[in-house]
User: Which sequence fits this backbone?
């Protein structure tokens, strides 16, 4: 059975704007550790740094 990303469930908790939030934070130079803290405090998402890094790689558009 294929492994399903939890990104989609987390994205729904952010109103469908998780990739946009992460891209914005990236453009502001916000570290993954700080992004982890913000996602936890704002949306109750208790994520690992490796999960955030994987989501960055798979779902967040590269800066232009």
Assistant:
């Amino acid at each position: 059975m294929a492994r399903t990303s939890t990104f989609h469930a987390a994205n729904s908790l952010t109103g469908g704007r998780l990739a946009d939030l992460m891209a914005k934070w990236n453009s502001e130079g916000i570290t993954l550790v700080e992004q982890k803290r913000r996602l936890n405090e704002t949306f109750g998402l208790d994520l690992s740094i490796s999960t955030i890094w994987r989501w960055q790689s798979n779902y967040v558009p590269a800066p232009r």
